[in-house]
Design goal:
Elements lengths: L1 E10 L8 E10 L12 E4 L12 E11 L6 E9 L22 E12 L4 E2 L26 H13 L4 E6 L5 E9 L1 H19 L4 E4 L16 E6 L1 H5 L3 H10 L4 H5 L24 E3 L6 E3 L1 H5 L6 E3 L8 H14 L3
Parallel strand pairs: 1-5, 12-13
Antiparallel strand pairs: 1-2, 3-4, 4-5, 6-7, 6-9, 6-10, 6-11, 8-9, 11-14, 13-14
Length: 340
């Protein structure tokens, strides 16, 4: 019998921006294969996470995905859903809002973020009491003058790959200390699971560096001339991947137009500071779509057009602090409402 460490991970009840929580359960197993069938539910004190009252504080943790923990011996990362004591989804459970049981929807998320120095509270590369050179030279840069935090970012990429996530890439972003990673999954729930696990690995890794990750979409202030951080949602279903019809793409894009408020409501806190119509964004009150237009709400990738209107769409509005579960759930609902 070997002892294994199961890190149960969940989202708390803070609103509108939830936080990752986790705790370790040590169990003895013989020939553990790392499957959900081998582990059980757990519980936690919901009164400490804004998910229950003290008089009846137990909330259930139901495992939905499990991955090897590359930073622990005999360790596993267990993504869970929060359930009420009667087994129904907790109100904070965004995963339960996703209507994609057949995994017809594929999602690719582009997670932008700032690496912050804990000692100064500033992004890497920012001097105390001032500002670095204007943005422009940082995007996809190389060299110590413009590139800050590569050690952390490279280590995070390795951890995600070693954990078995479908990790697709990294790059430094437009502002100093700003980076991005990309994940893709066939199935909206799986895409959300993997993004949250990737965030968990990134946040935990910063403990070794004296850094923290800032997911606020405009951490330097809404009036600063720096790009904000988003989490662009690339999505497709069978229709988008195979239709070969420009009019179908237009119909699906137009289905989003009357639902701007519903989407913005789940696309992340403080997104009004980022979606100003500047810095490669559309204004938060507007809706637009276009081919290869990074200033539009929804971009039709040029490659989809070149392939004969077969591919995907990119919703550029979600903020970096958004919940991928809620974002995916809302996108799926809107796409399914399109009359195609």
């Amino acid at each position: 019998m070997a002892k294994i460490k199961l890190e149960y991970i969940w989202l708390d009840g803070y609103f509108p921006t939830q936080n990752l929580r986790s705790k370790t359960k040590v169990e003895e197993h013989e020939n553990f294969k790392g499957t959900l069938e081998e582990i059980g539910n757990w519980s936690f004190d919901g009164s400490s996470t804004r998910q229950a009252e003290g008089g009846s504080s137990d909330c259930l943790l139901v495992p939905v995905a499990i991955y090897p923990d590359p930073d622990r011996i005999n360790g596993y990362l267990v993504m869970t859903e929060v359930m009420n004591a009667d087994g129904t989804p907790h109100v904070s459970n965004g995963r339960a809002t996703i209507d994609d049981d057949d995994n017809d929807f594929w999602f690719g998320f582009e997670q932008e973020y700032f690496i912050m120095d804990t000692a100064t509270g500033l992004p890497l590369g920012f001097p105390i009491g001032g500002y670095p050179a204007p943005q422009g030279m940082y995007y996809c840069s190389v060299g110590g003058k413009n590139t800050h935090g590569r050690d952390l970012v490279e280590r995070h990429a390795d951890l995600c790959i070693d954990a078995g996530l479908n990790f697709e890439g990294i790059n430094q972003e437009v502002a100093s200390g700003q980076w991005e990673f990309q994940l893709f999954a066939k199935g909206a729930k799986l895409a959300g699971d993997e993004l949250w696990i990737a965030r968990y690995l990134l946040d935990r890794l910063t403990e070794q560096y004296g850094y923290y990750i800032e997911y606020h979409p405009k951490p330097l202030g809404k009036d600063m001339d720096w790009n904000g951080s988003g989490m662009h949602a690339n999505f497709s279903n069978t229709t988008l991947r195979t239709c070969g019809d420009k009019d179908v793409y237009a119909t699906i894009c137009e289905a989003f137009r009357p639902l701007v408020k519903e989407h913005i409501a789940v696309y992340g806190e403080f997104n009004d500071q980022r979606l100003t119509g500047l810095h490669e964004t559309a204004a938060i009150t507007d809706f637009s779509w276009g081919i290869s237009d990074r200033g539009a709400s929804i971009r039709i990738p040029l490659i989809a057009v070149e392939k004969g209107w077969k591919g995907w769409l990119e919703d550029r509005r979600p903020a970096s602090n958004g919940d991928p579960y809620k974002i995916a759930g809302r996108i799926i609902k809107t796409v399914k409402s399109a009359k195609v």
